[in-house]
Amino acid sequence: MKRIHGKELILKVTIIGLIFLLLTVGFSISKQIETSDHEIIIGPYTQNVTNGSITIIWETNTNTNNNRIEYGETTNYGYIEYGKSDTYHHEVTINPSFSLGHYRVISDDVESNDLEFKLESQCQDSGMFTCVLYGDSRGIWDNWNHATQVANAINDEHPDLTIHLGDMVNNGLINSEWTSWLNLMKPLMQNTTVFGVIGNHERNADRYFEIFALPNNERWYSFDYGPCHFTILDQYDLWNFFSPQYEWLIQDLSTTDKPIKIVCFHAPIFCSKGQGHESRVDIRNIWEPIFSQYNVNLIFQSHNHNYERTNPINGITYVVCGGGGGPLYMPGNGEFINTSKMAYHFCLLNVSLETNSVEVTTKGINNEIYDKFIVNTTRPSTPDAIITKPEKALYLFNQKIWLYSLQRHPTIIGKIIIETSTSQNDFEKVEFYVDGDLEKSQFNEPYSYPWNKTIWNYTEVFFKHYIEILAYDHFENIAFDQQTVWRIL
Questions:
Q1: What's the domain count of the chain?
Q2: Tens digit of each residue's pLDDT (9 = 90 or more) over 424-458
Q3: Strand-strand pairing, 87-94 and 54-64
Q4: How far apart are the first and last CA of the chain?
Q5: Which of 252, 381, 410, 449 could disulfide-pair with 432, CB 3.0 to 4.6 Å?
Q6: 12 falls in which pLDDT band (50, 70, 90)?
Q7: Does 243 share its domain with 177?
Q8: Nearest in space to 207 (alpha carbons), one of 151, 168, 165
Q9: Cβ pair 380, 312 in contact under 8 A
């Protein structure tokens, strides 16, 4: 009986051991499966860098609860900031007391590699900073080949910040395109802080506003870096007189005390067109007077897939920088264009805090240099030339019938002679434009243009038109003036 009892005991112990072993292995496997269920699929990367703060974004493939950032001056970290729980999209702002540091993100049991960040304050120590601007990645047409080459070439420059001028994807409503763009941008976005500009192909997609964490309303906003004030505008929201964006733009540029003012938006208001898009004359007539009044130095645009730089127009240099990966466009001709190139490229800004100057170098994907110029806080002298006729009045076949002050624009019935006034005699020529089209170039005074086109040249009897002049001196400086008019017959 004892021998039988011993066998039963051994059997029971064996069974209990096996059960314990199975439970232990099962729990271990279950924990491994649970842990492997979580994965960081986007980022982490930095956003919205300021003098004393920076935002970090990452995404996990499932909702996670314990989401946090560990950061410090070394890889020992020492500081921690927690994010929201039960979410896959993580956006956390840290406020370091130091300008250069390390960070990693942790979501439940998954953590990222160590990465570095820098605040705007770091340029106070180095005395300079670099910024890259470019636009129109739109790489779906060639499986993102050229967009990747441009992004990698930018990453090789190790810029402190980057501004993408819009059209990152071909269709912002297709999330898979954003995933492809984020994948190719990952090395760059983990090496610099990327700011965004809304283009037409973003289509105001919700995904754009998830990917970026930007100041103000994230559509139009501004930020400071070193001696520069960057103003970002949205041409696909209301931009006309008295719109919220118009009023904000005046307030923004009139209150900054930074010596260098740089404005960015997507569609050009000065370009040669070529195989691309025409200048947005309608926006030009609203925004350009503000840019001139508040002494903007540089304006970066995209939309056309090429590179162009104007001579200074009312003291402002306009750059088209649209060679980020989309199919290239051949640039056109324009007397106001200094340099143009059909090539994949980006613009690298080297900003000196000592001299408050910006050296702009336009580079290709194989380190080619296509253009180089310097912008100082002292704007180029602008020749004085204005449109003197028509005034704010009613004109009947070139005769002023009634002068008024309340109406914003002149009203013209029939033909009229457009007249200008200049304060100097060294102009090479004056160009007259109507609705963005060059109508006449005049090389001698008096500078005037008989606007003889009638109803048969236009689609409507009563129609809004834009009259503009570009006056060129002998030093490649250009004066610009404009009038919006209503024309009948």
A1: 3
A2: 667 889 999 999 999 999 998 889 999 987 655 55
A3: antiparallel
A4: 123
A5: 449
A6: low
A7: yes
A8: 168
A9: yes
| Same domain flag for 340 and 218 | yes
3-state DSSP: the chain helix, strand, coil percent, rounded to 5? 20, 40, 40
- The DSSP element (H or E) to which 315 belongs, if any, is none
- Output the pLDDT for position 173: 98
| C-beta atoms surrounding 274 within 10 Å | 20
Pairing of strands 228-232, 260-264: parallel
Residue 453 pLDDT: 74
pLDDT in tens, 308-326: 999 999 999 999 999 999 9
Nearest to 133 by CA among 308, 348, 329, 306: 348
Instruction: Check if the beta carbon of residue 56 is closer than 8 Å to that of residue 44.
Output: yes
Under a CB-based contact definition with an 8 Å cutoff, are residues 363 and 348 in contact? yes
Higher pLDDT pick, 166 / 30: 166
Environment class of 61 (CB within 10 Å of its CB; exposed 0-12, middle 13-18, buried 19+): middle
Residue 299 near residue 291 (C-beta atoms within 8 A): yes
Q: Which residues contact 159 (CB under 8 A, 6 or more apart)?
A: 130, 131, 132, 192, 348
Per-residue pLDDT of 342-384, as tens digits, reads: 999 999 999 999 999 999 999 999 999 999 999 988 777 777 8
User: Do 354 and 230 share a structural domain?
Assistant: yes
What's the half-sphere exposure (Cβ side, CA atoms, 13 Å) at 86? 0
**Per-residue pLDDT at 33 exceeds 70:** no
Q: Distance between CA 435 and CA 449 in Å, rounded?
A: 14
Q: Output the pLDDT for position 27.
A: 41
Crossing angle (nearest 10°) for helices 281-293 and 244-255:
30
- Residues 6+ positions from 7 with CB-CB distance below 8 Å: none
| Predicted TM-score (pTM) above 0.85 | yes
Q: Point out the least confidently predicted range of 111-115, 155-159, 225-229, 424-428.
A: 424-428
- 418's CB contacts (< 8 A; 6+ apart) are 387, 389, 390, 432, 448, 449, 450, 451, 467, 469
CA distance 369 to 350: 14
- 3-state secondary structure at position 181: helix
**How far is it, in rounded angstroms, from Cα 134 to Cα 348?**
9
Co-location of 299 and 185 in the same domain: yes
Q: What is the pLDDT of residue 344?
A: 98
Domain boundary among 332, 350, 376: 376
47 lies in the same domain as 133: no
Does some domain include residue 311? yes
